[in-house]
């Protein structure tokens, strides 16, 4: 079955461009468009898309609040949110990640990256460009809580190796890079990541990265 995509952007020309790119792919189907967050919420309820391609700055309701309402607690729909941001890394993307976005993409990304990003997010993965995500969190570290003096009790449920993996996820390393760093297989890394998400009650790698920063486990700019 084709991946169902909802386009959300207040610029009609951009939506048209995205539609042309996505409809050229046999496994993607654009099921609707919205020009602001409120329209997006209505469209998600009616159309049940798999992926919402979400702009951040829009009238009436911005992409952060729309993302929060689409992916927040109690939501049982399939929709995952892929945030679109400007080239200079929009400061609101950190809030969107907190709100439940599965990742983000630069608006000037090549067409093939847009297509692949949608496929990855639809497949339950996140953090398509981990190094960019890390730089984003570092850049806007002042918007993140500084963290308590001690790390949250939930971290105590992780093994020492799982804590290592969480730190590397937060620093933007892919599974392959983590495997090389820890001298283990990618399969082992995937298992550790899965355990981290389950134990901490997190949905995906993006939430894990934000959690690591907010808990104080990882400090922006610091080296492990």
TrEMBL record:
Claim: Transcription is one of the keywords in the record: yes
Single GO term (MF): DNA binding
Domain HTH luxR-type stretches: 151-216
SMART domains according to UniProt: HTH_LUXR, REC
The organism's place on the tree of life at top rank: Bacteria
Sites bearing 4-aspartylphosphate, chain numbering: 55
Parts of the chain that traverse the membrane: none
Residues annotated as domain Response regulatory: 4-122
Pfam families: GerE, Response_reg
InterPro entries linked: CheY-like_superfamily (IPR011006), NreC/VraR/RcsB-like_REC (IPR058245), Sig_transdc_resp-reg_C-effctor (IPR016032), Sig_transdc_resp-reg_receiver (IPR001789), Tscrpt_reg_LuxR_C (IPR000792), WalR-like (IPR039420)
Signal peptide range in chain numbering: none
UniProt KW keywords: DNA-binding, Phosphoprotein, Transcription, Transcription regulation
SUPFAM superfamilies registered for this protein in UniProt: C-terminal effector domain of the bipartite response regulators (SSF46894), CheY-like (SSF52172)
Key word Transmembrane present: no
Name of the molecule in the record: DNA-binding response regulator
Lineage, highest ranks first: Bacteria, Bacillati, Actinomycetota, Actinomycetes, Kitasatosporales
């Amino acid at each position: 079955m084709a991946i169902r995509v909802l386009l959300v952007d207040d610029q009609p020309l951009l939506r048209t461009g995205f539609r042309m790119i996505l409809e050229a792919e046999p496994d993607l189907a654009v099921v609707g468009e919205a020009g602001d967050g409120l329209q997006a919420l209505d469209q998600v309820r009616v159309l049940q898309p798999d992926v919402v391609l979400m702009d951040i700055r829009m009238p009436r309701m911005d992409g952060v609040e729309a993302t929060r309402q689409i992916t927040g607690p109690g939501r049982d729909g399939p929709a995952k949110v892929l945030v679109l941001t400007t080239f200079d890394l929009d400061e609101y993307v950190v809030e969107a990640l907190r709100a439940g976005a599965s990742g983000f993409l630069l608006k000037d990304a090549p067409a093939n990256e847009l297509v692949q990003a949608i496929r990855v997010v639809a497949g339950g993965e996140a953090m398509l460009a981990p190094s960019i995500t890390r730089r984003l969190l570092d850049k806007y570290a002042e918007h993140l809580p500084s963290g308590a003096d001690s790390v949250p009790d939930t971290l105590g449920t992780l093994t020492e190796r799982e804590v290592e993996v969480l730190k590397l996820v937060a620093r933007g390393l892919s599974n392959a890079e983590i495997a090389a760093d820890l001298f283990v297989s990618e399969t082992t890394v995937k298992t550790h990541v899965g355990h981290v998400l389950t134990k901490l009650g997190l949905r995906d790698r993006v939430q894990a990265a934000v959690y690591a920063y907010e808990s104080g486990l990882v400090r922006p700019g610091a080296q492990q």
